[in-house]
Amino acid sequence: MHFSCRFLLPAASIAGTLNHQKLTSQAFLLLCLMKKYDFLVIGSGIAGLTYALKVAEYGSVCIITKASEDESNTKYAQGGVAAVWDFDQDSYRKHIADTLDAGDGLCDKRIVEIVVKEGPERVREVIDWGAKFDKNEEGEYDLGREGGHSEHRVLHHKDNTGFEIESALLRQIARHPNIELHTHYFAIDLITQHHLGQEVTRRTKNIECYGVYVLNTLTKKTETILAKITLLATGGAGHAYRNTTNPIIATGDGISMFYRAKGKVMNMEFYQFHPTALYNPGEHPSYLITEAIRGFGAVLKTSDGKEFMQKYDKRKSLAPRDIVARAIDNEMKKRGDDFVYLDCRHLDKKKFKAHFPNIYEKCKSIGIDVFKDMIPVVPAAHYLCGGIMTDELGRTSIKNIYACGECACTGLHGANRLASNSLLEAMVFSHRAYLEAIKAIGKLPFKKGIPDWNAEGTVNPEEMVLITFTRLEVQNIMSNYVGIVRSNLRLRRAFKRLELIYRETEELYQRTIVSPELCELRNLINIGYLIIVSSLERKESRGLNFNTDFPKKLSEAKNTIL
Predict the structure, then answer these.
(1) Is 132 inside a domain boundary?
(2) Phi, psi dihedral angles at 336 (to 5 degrees)
(3) Would 260 be classed as within a structural domain?
(4) Long-range CB contacts (< 8 A, 24+ apart) of 217-221?
(5) Distance of alpha carbon 325 from alpha carbon 337, whole angstroms
(6) Is-contact 409 265, C-beta < 8 A?
(7) Rounded to whole angstroms, what are the CA distances from 352 to 163, 199, 343, 345, 432?
(8) Which is nearest to 349 in space by CA: 305, 297, 300?
(9) Measured between alpha carbons, how far is residue 284 from residues 152, 205, 381, 505 in Å?
(10) Of the candidates 32, 37, 70, which has an alpha carbon nearest to the alpha carbon of residue 179?
(11) Is-cis flag, bond preceding 285, omega within 30?
(12) Would 473 be classed as within a structural domain?
């Protein structure tokens, strides 16, 4: 299966029109559809926003996001951000050990040490920018504990920490004169030598990025944004699966664009299923029940009210997510149940409502009194531990592109992410990418001769419903064959089904005017392909990749690079 870019034919140069006092309407339109910035940021979550605030002191910055400015996975992060804060009880050594243990032998220890040791300073920055974390009666930060953590080290703002951080960052972004934020801009493809007529393959050395083609979904016009340096901070890809806690924008756009541009991705088989999404049939996306509730004392039980996690791990309900999700999946299959329960009935009512007000109200809205009724929960696709391969400075295999946040694979998470390490990783690597980018920016020119987007010969789709149905088909294939438990038979069957869908969709793409729906479908197919191929490459069960044909771990842990 090969995933190719639409080849863009060079458009007529507009350079000559600049010498005339009056521009023709066509030339003026072309000028409007091509913009230039020193720094381009694709994505408006914590990774993109913190990077943008820092590089804005060194040049012009454009942030684009395909939805509203605050719509990102960051916004929906309930639990918090893990950082060593109380050095009387906690230590870098403990946080490093917990991260390595959760990552099941595949974390890059050097990267783990960097993130854990630099993390507290980055958290202080967002506090200085206005983010407020909960404090106890003594005025000290109220540190929570989540699965896989040996100590209380999770800073949080009730049960909507991500929203609090996102809001603080956007307030700072709005005040900065060097930053433009464009909403409803859908990034279609990264611009490389390919668009200048050069052959670019996975063996091509020194691939360079010059910017991006974007669809303005309000005007329906495709525009060209040129940039000296581009940061991909496009988040995850939860909607490759039928049930996910991710917002509807999480369709793997950045990773797919990067792979189509012949960049390297890594460890795509490790998709983390959050153990406790609210079981509420018909609700999409799934509502997340934060792991912090289990850290608060909630207990997982089967439908007959019996605890079961002691059969799987000595840490019981506070075991790492891969262990808990597989345990729930196994119990559901053995019993024929559609969900398990999370029991909060024994917890302090006043403290629970203070810590988890949104979860309390959500459950109440569907008839669940958490102090009388157990909460039905089920695993749902939550976080991609793989992604665009980066180094310790956020650099990728394509020149002038950096990546951070969920779309990047830094080596921190290994085969399974430790709870609340994601926001920390985003802050640390956005800072490191900023430091490297400002060193490089002065040496980089804007690329000349970039063609405009060419949509000649394309038409509006005959039936948009076909795109919708195909998206559901992709999600069903991934959920049924490439979920929490896999086998080679299931993976090969998924590959064959997806290959047919890919060919049909590429034919549609070549003859159809681009739309967000069609582009998202292409990206989800690409994500599915990468997950399947990476899963077939791994001849073992490790972390989030459990294959019944290879139930044991290999003695040597290796990354899967595509």
Answers:
(1) yes
(2) 75, 25
(3) no
(4) 217/66, 217/184, 217/185, 217/186, 217/516, 218/184, 221/33
(5) 15
(6) yes
(7) 19, 59, 13, 10, 37
(8) 297
(9) 32, 42, 12, 24
(10) 37
(11) yes
(12) yes
Distance CA 247, CA 69 (A): 13
Q: What is the reported pLDDT for 50?
A: 97
Residue 186 parent element (H or E): strand 185-191
Q: What is the pLDDT of residues 248-281, one digit of tens each?
A: 999 999 999 999 999 999 999 999 999 999 999 9
CATH number of the domain to which 498 belongs: 1.20.58.100
- In single-letter form, the type of residue at position 386 comes to G
Written as six digits, the tokens of 419 are 């709870």
Sheet order of strands, 375-384 included:
271-278, 375-384, 340-343, 299-301
The model's pTM = 0.90
**CA–CA gap between residue 512 and residue 86 (Å, rounded):** 57
Torsions phi, psi of 306, nearest 5? -100, 140
User: Looking at the predicted structure, is the pLDDT value of residue 20 above 60?
Assistant: no
Contact 61, 172 (CB under 8 A): no
Q: Is 207 a member of any domain?
A: no
Select from 109, 135, 162 the last residue of a domain.
Answer: 162
**pLDDT tens-digit series, residues 129-153:** 999 999 998 899 999 998 899 999 9
Residue type, 147: G
Nearest 10 degrees: CA dihedral of 175, 176, 180, 186?
Answer: -70
Distance CA(185)–CA(34), nearest Å, equals 13
Q: Indicate the SS3 state at residue 81.
A: strand
Query: b/e for 142-152, b at 16 or more Cβ within 10 A?
Result: bbbbbbbbbbb
Query: Residue 72 in contact with residue 45, Cβ under 8 Å?
Result: yes
Beta-sheet pairing, 81-82 with 154-155 = antiparallel
Q: How does DSSP assign 418-477, residue by residue? A: PTT-HHHHHHHHHHHHHHHHHHHGGG-PPPS-PPPP--TT-B--S-HHHHHHHHHHHHHH
Q: Which of 113-117, 160-164, 195-199 has the least mean pLDDT?
A: 160-164
Lowest mean pLDDT among 1-15, 174-188, 389-403: 1-15
- In total, the chain counts a number of residues equal to 562
List residues with catalytic annotation: 321
Instruction: Give the C-alpha separation, 323 to 317, whole Å.
Output: 10
| Domain of 117, in residue numbers | 80-162
**Domain end: 136, 162, 188, which one?**
162
Distance CA 506, CA 361 (A): 44
Number of domains in the chain: 3
Q: What is the mean pLDDT of residues 106-123?
A: 98
Decide if 388 contacts 230 (C-beta within 8 A): no
Among 478, 430, 473, which Cα is nearest to 268's? 478
Segment 506-509 long-range contacts (CB within 8 Å, at least 24 positions apart):
506/4, 508/461, 508/466, 508/467, 509/6
Tell me which residue has tokens 């069609």: 518
> What percent of the chain has a predicted confidence (pLDDT) above 70?
92
Chain Cα centroid distance, residue 62: 20
